[in-house]
Design a protein that fits this description.
single chain, 612 residues, mainly alpha, MetI-like fold, 2 domains, two-stranded parallel sheet, 3% strand
Length: 612
């Protein structure tokens, strides 16, 4: 009898324990997600930051002071940071500068990074907004496909885009060949600020266009119609009614573009080199020189600036969420209702814009593919044969193509297995406003403010070298596991930003009904919320896979051993040896793999990945 009573008590405890876990499974899942982020993101980043504020085992701001008072890094602001209380002298210097007609001051490395980011942002918005206008206001054959393709450049690997621009704008590239037909001298654009700005616009103009298009399609048409019925002109209705509804999306795209171009690395590394170095490129250079203290100090400055700008992004993003989905939309008009419409000024302007966009967005990719198939004597497959020769064990190059392709796919699959569930849990907690939602919002955004180079250094210094544990144990993460950890930290914010809007569109009463019928919170999420949010989940998965395949910043730090090279690293190695043909061949393979992995976003996901 005693043993039977003990057995019943044990069974009761087990049931209560199971019930306790069942009722709290979502908070437990959020805690696990937080622990994953702590290990793969926050701890490595903290390791880097400590390098910049700890000297000889003691806290010190000397590394930061050295950076902020060095004209090489901050230009004319060096004296301001060195003597912040000398306001009178600084004011006199400002007046003397004004007297010289505001001559261009010395910007320094940090100032130049911000300057090129501003130029790149202006170019991206200027190119992206007309595209958003066309996609939102006009109906034409292929509009949906074109709208789907607007996000594809954003997920293409940066090193591959650099290869495309290198092939198109080189001295012997298609652009100069075309100019030669018209008797125009060759234009030298490589290793200039202009080519960097154009390459950044290639990336971010489609992002601006997609965000603005989604906002434009969500505008309540009745507000515009009411303004027109009250006598407002088309222009007045645009600026007074339409523009305020579009502003949050446009500003969010603008701010996000600045952050991405401020933290630029592969584009500048390939097209600008150290002559056009940004903070990210110089951090990489300092690491190669084993100057980790300066690299850490620069990383802290870069991250602080990025976080400050991202705070604006979160503000604009929250206004987008608050706007909701409009019940009616502005009707689209046919782009070409008749042949005579071809000669209307607006249609001529659209045609000119279309030609420019085709040159900017299609030209580099076509040039890369054409370069991979061209040799001194015309069409050839020798560059692809070169890759196969390396695969069979040639000694001239240590990088073999198939292991790079295999590694990229394996790392992408492992990244998806970590980033997708982590992103889903964070998105559900964030949208449903559960306890800790504000903290999770910060967790979901922080990786966007930290560069892959910094994360790669942190993983290298922390987990790859090993972390001592009590009892003589040592936590060590090396090789492909470290690369997957870096990719997961970089990609999960994009999962959150695709899943969260989809979760937000699910009717909460359906979840409450499931709970009322006895379903646990997790069961309601799995059986009700996630199936209804599958479009956003698939979009987030596609982002995670595509970005992982193209991730270069952290991978180039962690994949120093040839066994862990990925396709982007292989492309950069071929290009570094000035072998443009094999680099373009490997870039073409990378383009095919990345595009194939991302095509599911609109075919399976229903085209709902409008937010980032």
């Amino acid at each position: 009898m005693a043993s039977e009573g003990a057995s019943r008590r044990a069974t009761g405890l087990t049931r209560r324990g199971y019930q306790w876990v069942r009722e709290r499974s979502l908070p437990i899942a959020a805690l696990v997600a937080g622990m994953v982020l702590l290990v793969v993101f926050y701890f490595p980043v903290a390791v880097v930051f400590l390098e910049g504020v700890v000297v000889d085992g003691l806290p010190s701001l000397a590394p930061l002071r050295e950076v902020l008072t060095d004209p090489f890094y901050v230009g004319v602001l060096a004296d301001v940071f060195a003597r912040p209380t000398a306001t009178g002298e600084h004011l006199d210097s400002l007046l003397r500068w004004a007297a010289t007609g505001f001559a261009r001051p010395s910007l320094g490395l940090i100032g130049f990074t911000a300057y090129q980011a501003v130029l790149s942002t202006v170019a991206s918005v200027a190119i992206g907004l007309p595209g958003a206008y066309i996609l939102a206001r006009y109906e034409f054959r292929g509009r949906r496909l074109l709208r789907s393709l607007t996000i594809l450049p954003f997920v293409l690997p940066g090193i591959m885009v650099a290869i495309g621009f290198f092939a198109m704008f080189s001295t012997n590239g298609p652009l100069n060949a075309l100019l030669g037909v018209f008797g125009v001298a060759p234009v030298e654009m490589l290793f200039t600020l202009e080519i960097i700005v154009l390459a950044h616009a290639f990336y971010n103009a489609p992002l601006v266009a997609r965000l603005a298009t989604a906002a434009w399609e969500g505008v309540d048409a009745r507000t515009v119609e009411t303004a027109r019925s009250l006598g407002a002109s088309r222009r007045r209705a645009f600026f007074d009614v339409l523009a305020p509804q579009l502003a949050p999306a446009v500003l969010a795209g603008t701010v996000l573009t600045f952050v991405f171009t401020f933290r630029t690395f592969p584009i500048v590394l390939a097209l600008g080199g150290l002559e056009m170095a940004t903070i990210e490129v110089w951090i990489f250079s300092r690491i190669q020189q084993l100057d980790l203290t300066t690299a850490a100090a620069l990383a802290i400055v870069e991250t602080v600036i990025s976080i400050g700008v991202l705070a604006l992004y979160l503000r604009f993003e929250s206004r987008q969420y608050g706007a909701g989905q409009a019940p009616t939309q502005i009707d689209r008009e046919p782009l070409l209702p008749s042949f005579r419409a071809l000669f209307r000024p607006s249609r001529v302007a659209i045609s000119v814009y279309g030609v420019f966009v085709a040159v900017l967005f299609i030209g580099p990719m076509v040039s890369m593919i054409a370069e991979s198939l061209t040799g001194p004597n015309g069409l050839t497959l020798s560059h692809y044969a070169f890759l196969f020769d390396r695969q069979s064990g040639g000694t001239a190059f240590q990088i073999k193509p198939w292991p790079a392709v295999r590694n990229s796919l394996l790392f992408a699959g492992a990244t998806l297995a970590i980033a997708l569930p982590t992103g889903i849990v964070v998105a559900v907690r964030r949208v449903r406003g559960d306890r800790g939602g504000v903290l999770l919002d910060v967790l979901a955004t922080a990786p966007l403010a930290v560069s892959g180079i910094v994360l790669g250094i942190g993983l290298l210094r922390g987990l790859v070298f090993g972390l001592p544990l009590p009892g003589g144990w040592r936590l060590q993460v090396t090789g492909g596991v470290a690369i997957v950890a870096a990719h997961a930290a970089a990609t999960y914010p994009f999962v959150v930003r695709n899943v969260a809007p989809a979760i937000g569109r699910v009717d909460l009463s359906l979840v409450e009904s499931a709970r009322a019928l006895g379903a646990s919170r997790v069961r309601a999420m799995v059986d009700v919320e996630l199936p209804l949010a599958v479009a956003g989940i698939v979009a987030g998965a596609a982002f995670a896979v595509a970005i992982s395949i193209g991730e270069f910043n952290s991978t180039v730090i962690l994949a120093e051993g040839g066994d862990y090279y990925t396709m982007p690293v292989a492309v950069e190695r071929y290009l570094g040896d000035r072998t443009l043909g094999p680099a373009t061949a490997m870039g073409t393979v990378l383009l095919a793999v990345t595009s194939a992995s991302f095509v599911v976003i609109d075919r399976v996901g229903g085209g709902r990945g409008d937010r980032l």
